[in-house]
Design brief:
Chain lengths: 304, 379
């Protein structure tokens, strides 16, 4: 009887791990919450080393001749803003720093508001003196139709967007008046949270672009694994989740620093501090959970 | 990991519910005291918001006669020119053109004015205070509606997060609000982005332009647009027939139409981008060389070790995973071993996808915490 009790309730380190296996899961939630909250409050930050995909995105925009016409599609909404707005901000700042003429559009209903925020907080804040609406940037807004909109854009932009977001005819806006189709753009970049988004731009838009034109994407972590096969042949650059945003921000602000409100271009890097701590906690929990499982197997007589 | 009480019961020990309950109550009291101190002891307070209100005024102007006059004409002739041809626009009353005399106010038209509002924190208001002149067009005033909005958002966030403790009525309220608001939102978006501009706008463009969307583009082929719009209108009615007690089969036809057209559109894209281009991308040399520059400045081909590793891993991965999904042959012997390698590749890709998903979810939680700390608690 005593032997049986000892096997069920072993002492020492093994007993600790067996009891750990029965830990109330709410302590884990609390630990995860603290691992995120404390680094936020301490403003914990770590240096970012840009990876090849972030560098490829940077090079795709950097290598375009200054003043090229680019199309930025904001295919996300506030639910994905935490991951995607940082890279959208950096992308707009990068394009504007190169003097590219920017056309904004959205395949998601609230993508227009996300683009408006980038225009207000980045484009007009840092480059307002040289960017005039109609000639240097245009906001086309949201258009319903998912991949159907991309299909129409491949043949006739004016058919998909006869007016801009404010209702002005595109024929009166010099930047887009002579843009016939997607071939008129040196770069198309989609900040994508799902359907419709990067996958549809590759499937329906890529083929109608000029061979030398670039297609890049910023993506949420959840859908990134669907996009990896497209890089680098069909997607010239790919920013993956907040990590990709942080790497890209590093590249952009190193070359094009700003003199005020710089935290607007550091959101990705700010969010990577808590990410790192939370990931370390998760790795530790996975290791501890496996040790606890092995320990509890031993206490049950080695049953598998 | 299992629930605490369940685990304790499995171990045969006393239920661990009481000590846990004390701890959770202690945490809750700590939180409430902290929030109260933050709300009442700090000047920043909680969710305190102010509005920067800017009064914007515009006057209608036209180009002054002197500016309109052809080069070389006399001022008297210019003054006699009909003002109807002058370009009119709304400008700031302090516009430089009015002061310089190149623009003049249009008589009989009152100025228009409106207010813009921008929500700011008390700390930001302190920075702005020195720049705002009393009696000027910009003023700062409390904004209770913004504070209320932050309180609602913060409480709903906490209600949702309360689910990690256990299912409770607060969570259910927040969940129901989310579902209801989302359903209503998508209905409104669908109505205003599709039904009104694309269906009603084609059938009765003048009516839509007059009462709903003044910016509806003018079509060059209104008759054709209206005729074509009857197709989706008819299909829509057929789809709704499903709700009728009889004739449910009628709704099958629009569903078949939607499935057929969607499959057709998707098929072309998938074959081109996901099959052909992926095949091309997979057909690459196993041994990779890159162009480089030799010691004497001459062009040389250099062995690319990591490029070669990448190519080999890619080809092995594609072939082994395809073998795993090839069920016409028993997975024994060499085929079985190759399929086993394929499973490893699949597991690694699932692990990568899981890691990316975790990163995305942590970012969402992180942003909610940022909102609670910066917007709600004003820390």
């Amino acid at each position: 009887m005593t032997t049986k009790n000892t096997e069920q309730n072993p002492g020492g380190m093994r007993g600790f791990f067996v009891r750990l296996g029965g830990l109330d899961r709410r302590w884990i939630f609390l630990a995860m919450g603290l691992s995120i909250a404390v680094p936020i409050l301490l403003k914990l930050r770590f240096p970012e080393v840009p990876g090849p995909m972030a560098r490829a995105t940077f090079e795709a925009i950097e290598s375009l001749p200054n003043g090229s016409r680019v199309l930025l599609s904001f295919d996300f909404d506030p639910a994905s803003k935490a991951e995607l707005q940082p890279m959208a901000n950096a992308l707009v700042h990068h394009c504007a720093s190169k003097g590219h003429k920017i056309v904004f559009m959205a395949l998601w209903p609230l993508g227009k508001q996300m683009a408006d925020q980038a225009i207000k907080e980045i484009l007009l804040e840092y480059h307002g003196d040289k960017y005039e609406y109609g000639t240097d940037y245009v906001q086309l807004g949201f258009k319903a139709g998912n991949e159907g909109v991309i299909k129409v854009l491949t043949t006739n932009i004016a058919e998909a967007y006869p007016t801009d977001a404010s209702g002005a005819a595109v024929s009166g806006l010099p930047l887009v008046a002579d843009a016939r189709d997607l071939g008129s753009f040196g770069l198309v970049s989609t900040i994508s949270a799902g359907y419709p988004g990067a996958k549809e731009w590759v499937q329906y838009g890529r083929e109608s672009m000029k061979p030398e034109a670039r297609l890049t994407s910023g993506s949420t972590g959840v859908q990134a694994s669907q996009l990896f096969p497209y890089y680098p042949a069909q997607l010239n650059g790919l920013l993956v989740a907040v990590k990709g945003a942080a790497e890209y921000e590093t590249l952009v602000t190193e070359k094009y620093p700003v003199d005020r409100n710089s935290e607007r271009l550091e959101q990705g890097r700010i969010r990577m501090g808590p990410q790192l701590v939370a990931h370390l906690l998760m790795i530790a929990l996975i290791v501890l959970g496996n040790i606890a499982m092995i320990a509890s197997r031993g206490s049950q007589g080695g049953a598998r | 990991m299992s629930d605490g009480s369940q685990a304790a019961n499995q171990g045969g020990a006393r239920p661990a519910k009481r000590p846990n309950t004390f701890l959770w109550i202690a945490l809750a009291v700590f939180g409430i005291v902290g929030l109260s101190l933050n709300a009442f002891m700090r000047p920043e307070g909680m969710a305190k918001r102010l509005s920067v209100v800017t009064t914007v005024e515009r006057v209608l102007v036209e180009e002054a006669p002197a500016a309109l006059a052809p080069e070389g004409s006399q001022p008297a002739e210019a003054a006699a020119a009909p003002t109807a041809t002058a370009k009119r626009k709304w400008v700031d009353p302090d516009d430089a053109g009015l002061a310089a005399g190149t623009l003049r106010r249009v008589e009989g038209v009152d100025p228009i004015s409106w207010e813009t509002r921008e929500s700011i924190k008390p700390s930001e208001a302190e920075l702005l205070a020195g720049e705002i002149k009393p009696g000027g067009p910009v003023r700062i005033e409390p904004s209770p509606i913004d504070s209320l909005g932050i309180w609602v958002a913060a409480l709903l966030t906490l209600f949702i997060l309360s689910f990690v403790y256990r299912d409770n009525p607060f969570y259910k309220v927040a969940e129901s609000i989310l579902i209801g608001v989302s359903a209503a939102y998508w209905m409104v978006v669908g109505f205003w982005s599709t039904i009104v501009p694309q269906l009603l706008g084609s059938l009765a463009p003048e009516v839509v332009r007059a009462y709903a969307m003044p910016s509806l583009p003018v079509s060059s082929t209104p008759g054709l647009d209206a005729a074509l719009a009857f197709v989706p209108l008819l299909l829509g009615f057929m789809l709704l027939w499903r709700l009728a007690p009889k004739g449910g089969w009628i709704s099958v036809w629009p569903i078949a139409f939607v499935i057929g057209t969607t499959a057709g559109i998707r098929l072309v894209g998938a074959i081109e981008a996901d099959l052909m281009r992926q095949l091309v991308a997979a057909m690459k040399p196993l041994v990779v060389f890159e162009n480089g520059v030799g010691a004497a400045g001459e062009a040389v081909r250099m062995f690319d070790f990591w490029g070669t590793v990448g190519s080999v891993v890619g080809v092995v991965g594609v072939l082994s995973v395809l073998t795993y999904f090839f069920f016409s042959v028993d997975h024994k012997g060499a085929v079985g071993k190759t399929a086993r390698v394929g499973i490893w590749f699949l597991m690694i890709s699932f692990g990568s996808a899981f890691g990316l998903t975790v990163m995305g979810r942590i970012t969402l939680l992180l942003q909610r915490f940022e909102f609670l700390f910066t917007d709600w608690l004003n820390i």
